[in-house]
Design a protein that fits this description.
Elements: H1 4-18, E1 20-25, H2 30-33, E2 38-40, H3 42-51, E3 56-60, H4 63-72, E4 77-79, H5 95-104, E5 109-113, H6 118-122, E6 126-128, H7 133-139, E7 144-148, H8 151-160, E8 165-168, H9 174-177, H10 181-190, E9 195-198, H11 204-207, E10 212-213, H12 216-225, E11 230-234, H13 237-246, E12 251-254, H14 269-278, H15 287-302
Parallel strand pairs: 1-2, 1-3, 3-4, 5-6, 5-7, 7-8, 9-10, 9-11, 11-12
The structure holds iron/sulfur cluster.
Length: about 300
């Protein structure tokens, strides 16, 4: 069972036996992605879970991703392989913080990045993903927006939607925040022919150098479709590995040393195997929180 391939085979056997759907985020280890039915961004995982006929869903990702899947599939069993795989950025904002910001800025609508807890979504007006944030901010029928929790994505949106006033919560993703402008400039000097694709969770001084600023899925699509043969990647390290495997004809470089989300790496093959075997850890949410959070997600989808 300790053998890597044997573990993968056991996971696939249990998956078939239990008619489970395994969905993996792009940042979990590649060997976990390899046994998944689909690999996608966090909200796409929740949407795929909702559309699937399976009653047992395994979300290979961090806690808020499991919560989003449960919000859209309240009658299904949603499992997370690692109980302590959380998202430090999501944990930086609480519902009380949001309510305090609402009191300070009573005319503002609350826009909340999907990388947040169900409890925070429940006290927000609308959610957004990194790819829909700009569109939703522009369309929101409000002149002032409180954006939580990511200050970098919030700044990027604020800069591109100058007609509205933004109040930004100071949260950030510790993984993307580590990428510095000096890293980008050094990588550009080392690979002058390369185009640069960067995630908006990085700081403004990094994002401004991007030929593409986009979500993980958009970065992957850009790398696949660009005519450039050298691509610099400004996001989590697993994407660099995935693209090197997928596009051997192109040169894929990470910026600086590899930037790793330690929480995503807690979703190991062993954890996934035990999750399926024991049907743990079930995501449960209070009914009122689930319904209120669903309103914010529905608002995003319908915007
Ligand atoms: S990469 Fe950043 S935002 Fe994504 S789960 Fe890790 S800490 Fe959270």
């Amino acid at each position: 069972m300790e053998n890597f391939n044997e573990l993968q085979r056991e996971i696939l056997r249990l998956k078939g036996e239990k008619n489970a759907l395994i969905l993996a985020h792009y940042y979990v280890p590649l060997e976990v992605q390899d046994v998944a039915d689909a690999v996608c961004d966090s909200f796409a995982m929740a949407q795929k879970a909702a559309k699937a006929e399976n009653d047992l869903i395994v979300i290979c990702g961090v806690r808020f991703m499991g919560e989003s899947a449960k919000i859209l599939s309240p009658d299904k069993t949603v499992l997370l392989p690692s109980l302590d795989a959380g998202c430090p950025m999501a944990d930086m904002v609480t519902p009380e913080d949001v309510l305090a910001l609402r009191r300070e800025h009573p005319k503002a609508a609350v826009m909340c990045y999907v990388n947040s807890s169900a409890a925070v979504k429940a006290v927000s007006d609308v959610c957004c993903t990194s790819s829909s944030a700009l569109r939703i901010a522009k369309k929101l029928d409000c002149d002032e927006i409180i954006f939580v929790p990511d200050v970098h994505l919030g700044s990027f949106v604020a800069k591109n939607v100058p007609e509205k006033k933004f109040w930004l919560h100071p949260g950030f993703c510790p993984t993307h925040h580590k990428i510095t402008e000096a890293d980008v400039l050094a990588a550009k000097r080392a690979h002058p022919e390369a185009v640069f694709a960067v995630h908006p969770e990085c700081g403004e001084d990094v994002v401004k150098h991007g030929d593409l600023v986009g979500s993980t899925a958009e970065i992957l699509d850009f790398a696949r479709s660009t005519e450039a043969h050298e691509i610099l990647i400004g996001t989590e390290g697993e994407i660099v590995e995935r693209l090197r495997r997928e596009l051997p004809e192109k040169k894929i470089y990470g910026v600086g040393s590899s930037f790793v989300c330690p929480n995503m790496k807690k979703v190991t093959l062993r954890a996934l195997y035990e999750c399926l075997r024991d049907e743990k850890y079930k995501v449960e949410l209070p009914d009122n929180e689930l319904k209120a959070a669903k309103k914010s997600l529905d608002q995003m989808v319908n915007s």
